[in-house]
Amino acid sequence: MGRVETPAERRRKGPRFGANFMTVLEVSRDLVCLCAEGVVIDVNSAGISMLGAGDGEAVVGHAFRDMVGGDYAGVIDDLLHLKEIEDSAFPIKILRLDGTAFEAELQIHPARELGPAHAVVTARDISHQGHLARTARHSEDRFQALVERSMHLVLLCHGGRIGYINATGTRVLGGVDASQFVGHPVSEIFAGEYREIVAADLSALLDEGGIMPMRLARLDGSVFDAQIKATRLPSRGAAPEYMVEARDITGQIRAVAALRHMNDTLEQQVVARTRELAEERSRAVEARTFVESLLEAVPNPLWWKDTEGRYLGYNGAFRELHGIDSTEWIGRTMDATVNPDFAAASGRADVEALKEQRRVQFEARLNVRLGEKLDVVVSKTVWQGRDHKAEGVIGVMLDITDRKRMEAELRRLATTDVLTGAFNRRHFMELAGAELDRARRHQRPMVALMLDIDHFKRINDTFGHPVGDIAIKALAATCAHEIRHEDVLGRMGGEEFAIVLTETDQDGALLVAERLRLAIAAIKIPTDQGDVVFTASIGLAERLEGDSTIDAMLSRADMALYAAKRSGRNRVAVG
Q: Using one digit for the tens of pLDDT, what is the confidence trace for 240-266?
């Protein structure tokens, strides 16, 4: 029997794809396409729709890199040609055929079973997340509007006290503002013996279950008859939460006395209306439950705060990110929960969003549990309550740590020499030119040095090119150690290096050059054939008033370098 592959070996080989796998993936709602050498050769129906194409022929034959927005085209090309393998999905912008774009999570799977440089690309549209937040806010407003516009008194109570009263209830009880009732004992709205019963035993009210005739008291002391219904609500704490509905039936009682024969009809109307209210309340609770479930389903950390910056709630992704429970940060601000730099940036975004009434976005570094640091993009938008008044800010976060790390690596590769870590020629010329411009503007001294290893060919011929590379690296490391942070070091090619000494005149530069010469002469590279030692010749050129480009200074330093070579090497010459 042949050896069975381990799971790790199967993962390294990538997914296994059969010839008919695109037919199987027609059921996917994500974009799926097959690429060969970076060119699309097949695409599923969902992908055709997401790219805005009429049929697959409009997509097949296109280079997939041309469908990618931003700076990722080169990276995507490497992944599609299987030069690099990225196991996890990453965020990216995909261009439709009409030029518009959408945000997506992209993943590239090697498909070597189908041919060399074959890859399967999957992309999931994640641009709907902002729509989810708006839908959640709209449903919350509808729930509040339903209760606020009720024709009857509605109270939401916690324990024995009122937590909310609607506009109708405020008016019915003779008040002008809800603050006259919120926080007061619920027993105070009842009159006479009813007040004593409720104050002494709240369960008597809650256990009744149905509609009860009771007498209520207004703020001015007058009383009226009402139909009362108390409904328990789901409660997390020990104190009960419940809703009290009340309908003023004073007029009905008078009518009953005068028109007793209509009593049955009126009772039927009361029952029907009560059933309608119960159904409306049930729909409102269902809507709110749906909104809460929707927020929990959002994969990105999401939170909402009041206008003072205090947390009012957050979803499961946010709790998982920070390692907290559902109430731990409620009522707290970012100043007390996250690192200061992130809190400051978030505070500025909150102020701007509330002032301008628009979406605000920023990037920042966030410290999370276990000392982990993430680069994130945060979007903030205002959420409004009744009368379109700003009630607070909603935030949603996207982790871009991997993208930032990739960008930094690309910048490093574009500006530094791979062997030595010094600036490459192109970047050195840019920095040196900028230093020359600054020195000319402010009339400051500046010196350019050119140096290379004496008899470098002899090192390569005697000890081999690997030892030659070690010598070049040792020279670069010695130069970096001997010069200042503000000076500029670059590898111009081979064993030749250039240095710009800022704020330095010729006398000071001679001291630096001599120190460099001695330090280089002290380098020893151990080999099987004995220690390799070498020297360097250095040419020096001071900035002149007529120098308009860095090339002029480097040219004079280069001539001085060759003068040092002709004079016997291992010395400093001035040009």
A: 888 899 998 888 778 766 766 666 777
